[in-house]
Specification:
10 strands, 39% helix, two-stranded antiparallel sheet, alpha/beta, pyruvate-formate lyase- activating enzyme
Length: 292
């Protein structure tokens, strides 16, 4: 398997085989993200993708159960191209049980529900989508390039097609001034999406990003650890979903909180209330241990 540049995947795909079908991110405008600053978006040549799949050692082909399509959003590919890749994977990887990828709302909206349904039948079971915030002002400030309603509609299409959704939001993304507005709106947007999984991360300022320049200029102030936890509490309180695994155990977070919604909601809120009521007694992750 050949890889071009840095390759990332969700933490839950740690045991998955990674296949690059695109390079970079087709959006690549978010102020906070430095992942693909040096990697322009491009579609990987079909012949290279096929060579990587067919050229896998026989033992790898026999035992691969999960595969992740990289880079930033494989859904930028045409429906025909995706179907060809998924068909080849089914043919060459007999034990394959799940294919997943990143996605963004623009690419979901560029496909009809029927197209997405066809892609799901071909084997794409789960997509990871960065909502980031449910507040339109925050999305505009970070140059996300799409609105809350567009993201909700893109997710609705994926859900209608039977594709599972793992949606992420970012604590601290609105800065100090709009902190709780961002959090409450994010909970409402997550409720509207009603995904299978929710993951909450905390903002980390990456070198070379527009967000770093905003921080240096004094234009942006990041909430402290307690401010981030207040946001987390507000998101959970405002989230009303039917059947969802909620996690805030990413390495960027100060305190891991998780459970199944809706039944664990009160327990998670109680955990956060204890910390917020006595922050000096809380065992929060030291700043130096936080990672992306």
């Amino acid at each position: 398997m050949r890889y071009h540049g840095a390759v990332i995947r969700p933490p839950s795909e740690a045991d998955s085989l990674i296949l690059q079908v695109t390079y970079g991110c087709s959006n690549n405008t978010c102020d906070f993200c430095g992942t693909y600053l040096d990697k322009p978006f491009a579609v990987r040549p079909p012949q290279e993708v096929e060579e990587d799949i067919v050229g896998l050692p026989a033992a790898v082909r026999r035992r691969t159960r999960r595969l992740f399509l990289a880079d930033g959003d494989a859904l930028a590919l045409s429906t025909r191209r995706l179907l060809d890749i998924l068909a080849l994977l089914r043919r060459e990887l007999p034990a394959l049980e799940r294919v997943s990828s990143y996605a963004n709302a623009k690419n979901l909206l560029a496909k009809s529900v029927d197209e997405l349904r066809e892609i799901r039948r071909a084997g794409l079971e789960l997509i990871y989508l960065g909502l980031e915030s449910g507040d339109d002002q925050t999305l505009a400030d970070i140059h996300k390039g799409m609105t809350v309603s567009e993201q909700i509609e893109g997710c609705r299409r994926a859900s209608e097609a039977g594709i599972g959704l793992s949606v992420t939001a970012i604590l601290g993304l609105a800065g100090v001034e709009r902190s709780l507005v961002h959090a409450e709106a994010t909970g409402r947007a997550l409720s509207a999406i009603d995904p299978r999984y929710i993951g909450v991360l905390s903002l980390m300022i990456e070198p070379g990003t527009a967000m770093e320049r905003r921080v240096r200029s004094g234009d942006f102030r990041t909430p402290d650890a307690i401010g981030m936890l207040r946001e987390l509490r507000e998101i959970i309180a405002a989230t009303d979903v039917s059947d969802c695994l909620f996690r805030s155990n990413h390495a960027s977070n100060y305190l891991p909180v998780g459970g199944h919604l809706p039944e664990d909601k009160e327990r998670m809120l109680a955990t956060l209330d204890r910390v917020l009521d006595a922050p000096e007694q809380a065992r929060l992750k030291p700043e130096a241990w936080r990672l992306l």
